[in-house]
């Protein structure tokens, strides 16, 4: 029959006891630690994915805000250009009005100077006419009635 040696049996018993002890004190904690580490890694990946989604949402929000800012800036520039155009037109209109006033004032001044010159010329003509009449009277060549008639004509011309 079979002959079994006690050494072989004790070796098997030792191996089984060693396996049970290793399973309880080594494989269990190592497996538990590895599962814990795998959970932490998965949580890190989940957190990273969440952060990535939040970053994408922020990027989209910033892009929308940037577009809105660009539109507002365009509107502000357009309004400023329109206001500047309006101010420019007002300044030009004011300058035209001022120029018209200056032209009218200059025309009035010219008219007054013209009238003054005419008055001075009439006064000189009248003076010359009176001198001529006086000399003519002194020489006796002209009668009183012709002098009065001449003075009357010069007076009408001067007026």
Automatic annotation (TrEMBL):
One of its GO terms (molecular function) is proton-transporting ATPase activity, rotational mechanism. It is a single-pass membrane protein. Its main location: membrane. The chain crosses the membrane at residues 6-27. Residues 52-116 form a coiled coil. It is found in: Cell membrane; Endomembrane system. One of its GO terms (cellular component) is proton-transporting ATP synthase complex. Keywords: ATP synthesis, Cell membrane, CF(0), Coiled coil, Hydrogen ion transport, Ion transport, Membrane, Transmembrane, Transmembrane helix, Transport. PANTHER family: ATP SYNTHASE SUBUNIT B', CHLOROPLASTIC. F-type ATPases have 2 components, F(1) - the catalytic core - and F(0) - the membrane proton channel. F(1) has five subunits: alpha(3), beta(3), gamma(1), delta(1), epsilon(1). F(0) has three main subunits: a(1), b(2) and c(10-14). The alpha and beta chains form an alternating ring which encloses part of the gamma chain. F(1) is attached to F(0) by a central stalk formed by the gamma and epsilon chains, while a peripheral stalk is formed by the delta and b chains. Belongs to the ATPase B chain family. Component of the F(0) channel, it forms part of the peripheral stalk, linking F(1) to F(0). This is ATP synthase subunit b. It comes from Candidatus Monoglobus merdigallinarum. The gene is atpF.
């Amino acid at each position: 029959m079979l002959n079994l040696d006690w050494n072989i049996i004790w070796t098997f018993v030792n191996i089984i006891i060693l396996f049970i002890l290793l399973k309880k004190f080594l494989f269990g904690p190592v497996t538990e630690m590895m599962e814990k580490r795998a959970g932490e890694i998965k949580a890190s990946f989940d957190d990273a994915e969440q952060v990535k989604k939040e970053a994408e949402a922020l990027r989209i929000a910033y892009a929308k805000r940037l577009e809105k800012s660009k539109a507002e800036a365009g509107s502000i520039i357009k309004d400023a250009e329109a206001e500047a155009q309006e101010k420019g037109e007002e300044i030009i209109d004011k300058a035209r009005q001022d120029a018209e006033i200056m032209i009218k004032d200059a025309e009035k001044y010219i008219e007054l100077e013209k009238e003054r010159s005419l008055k001075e010329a009439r006064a000189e003509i009248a003076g010359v006419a009176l001198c001529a009449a006086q000399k003519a009277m002194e020489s006796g060549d002209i009668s009183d009635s012709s002098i009065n008639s001449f003075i009357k004509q010069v007076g009408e011309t001067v007026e």
